[in-house]
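Obj.: predict assembly geometry.
Materials: sequence records (below).
Method: joint structure prediction, all chains together.
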Amino acid sequence: MAANHLFDGLLGGRVTDSRRLLTVPGESSWSYASMVELSGRLANLLLEQKVKPGDRVAVQVQKSAEAIALYLATIRAGAVFLPLNTAYTRAEIEYFLEDAEPTIFVCSSQCEPDFDDIEARVFSLDGDGAGNLLDAAGVMPTEFNNLARGSQDLAAILYTSGTTGLSKGAMLSHDNLLSNALTLVDYWHFDSHDVLLHALPIFHTHGLFVATNVILITGASMIFLPRFDLDQMIEQLPNANTLMGVPTFYTRLLADDRFDRDLVSHMRLFVSGSAPMLAETHLQFEERTGHRILERYGMTETNMNTSNPYDGERRVGSVGFPLPGVEIRISDPETGDELPLGETGMIEVRGPNVFLGYWRKPEKTALELRSNGFFISGDLGKVDAEGYLHILGREKDLVISGGYNIYPKQIETEIDTLDGVLESAVFGIADADLGEAVAAAVVPIDGVKLDPEQLVKALEPVLARFKLPRKVFVIDELPRNAMGKVQKNSLRDTYG
Ligand code: MCA
Ligand code: AMP
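Observations (raw structure tokens):
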């Protein structure tokens, strides 16, 4: 087999390993060898479909073991994996397909007919493995000679929205993914005995690269839940020893009386990230279980940047220290100059984890990725005297709801096109379950009476449901400063 940097690093030594990789409770169990075999069949299918190194394989499918096999197959075939949120509407998907020009698009069998007019060849894969993708792969051999790929070759593109409202594809190399996962294995003490309860979606960095890659590298196993379901979580926690989640996982567990010290006394590690965790959640968790959650900080463009220590003090309200090999710099947001220790400014990140740039957007890349390698995160923070990083705000206009990033600009653009709307401003308001929820302040054209419910209904065909405003306030005018800039803080104060 030719050297394939990411595949060899993730699975090189385990291609015939009969030990368990993954269990879908009540449904199926996969050994490392069976996962590698299916990925071999799928990789052969990709080649038969004329997928060439560097071609994109776009995937919008329910979470399943087969979807993991497709990810591995894409890497083995030298192609670029492009996962998409299952909640995206047809209108949203169209943008990604046009921008990324994938050779193959895999979606659910329900959606497949909607895409019969696109350039890419379309296959279907459902959460239970049904669909014509596996039918076609079934007749392919399991043996596959991996295509050669080096550390700097492209492995994945993950779209992340921008302040302009247009999504940008973050290009992640084989080594961005491998080096970061190797670091996390070491930092969080993962080994082959670990069993991770995996309830995150696998179309984002957290569930796919952090959780899955860490398990693959160590030869450990996962209990693979299709989604976060409280009853299933309580049922499966005794069978696992580690959990990775967004803060909403932890607040939902804490809201259930069955989640107590006995249920999790055997657990080794709870990790949280993707959104800020409230100090009160940390403290309540520790009081209830005796465990302190390990909070870490990452981004789609950079994988994981910092983490609280495994053995040392896990500091509440902090996201810990730069991971080995990762540098953090705090700069003046205006001038870019480095600030003295302890001052609050822009968090910048440099290291082997930092992406290659935005797909076909060199001018956007130049704005956010400095020529000296530092990526400008858009998060504001400071490093304290002991070296812990604290995230204190965001310069980017972003709402993080249940760990999903929602960029107000996209929603404002859609609202502003609706009949009777003069202008709008979208902002986050505190939400006990999701951390933040989307709210919209909408100004009608003079004399028009807007109905908030109808407004949200009109957005349904174009926006994924998790982006729909949960609250709409119809107001006479938007608060603006002297420069004419909408004051979202003032909206948050008034309506939050
Ligand atoms: C679902 N809904 C949401 C969200 N999720 N609304 C706002 N924010 C959300 N996050 C809506 C659905 O559209 C639906 O609306 C209703 O809530 C119920 O949907 P359901 O699927 O039942 O939702 P749920 O099971 O309650 O899901 C909530 C969740 C889930 C468990 C928090 O969103 C989740 O797994 N989030 C994890 C996201 C994640 O992995 N982020 C990592 C990004 P309706 O009733 O109107 O239809 S990677 C990242 O950020 C960086 C790199 C990092 O540091 O990790
Ligand atoms: P994404 O664009 O989905 O990669 O989300 C990355 C953003 O999530 C970061 O820029 C932060 O704003 C936020 N984030 C991730 N982890 C944390 C954390 N532990 N605390 C606060 N914010 C976080």
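Conclusions so far: The mean pLDDT is 96.
To do: check interface contacts against the pulldown list.
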